[in-house]
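Revision sheet: structure tokens.
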Amino acid sequence: MSRSRWFLPETPDVHGLLRHQVAVTVEGLEAFCAWARGDAAAAARVRELEHAGDAAKRELLSALRAAFITPLEPEDAFALSRGIDRLLNYARDLVSESEAMACPPDRRIAEMADLVRAGLAQLDAAVRALGDDDDAATRAADAAIREVRQLERVYYQGMAELLEVGDRNERIARRELYRSCSRLGETLVDVAERVIYAVMKES
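Predicted:
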């Protein structure tokens, strides 16, 4: 090996690590959707994958510190990783809230969970396209936002239906769970918009 190669900086695969974090999050949201459809045992899988998501985030941040050149601006990679991490955190928190309030998920929560998962599938495509096909990344990010915007309709339908729920404790509990679902959607929109911003900066 020549002496010049001894001093070359490391070039960790930051983009690959970000894609891996998204893949873990996709799996976690699949488990979350299963839980929302009534599979109580899937709650443990959500928590397991939330821990795996944390590990993926730590690995990415470590790579950012070591990398000399990255395909994404370090600020963008950090913001994307942080937002993606929050998706699993909020899904885990919603499961825990449901259990603590003894209020199992209902049809509206399942619908909102499915919309978040559909948006995440588009976000996955957007992240994979970053740096290779920025037009495709932008289109996929826009599609993710459109998917999640439908969540608002389901959210308001659910909130309106709560007016017919006679039990005050159930009404309060479901309202909080619906709000947590809405926060999941808002977080996904934030990440998708960050993808669009990252592309615009490179233009």
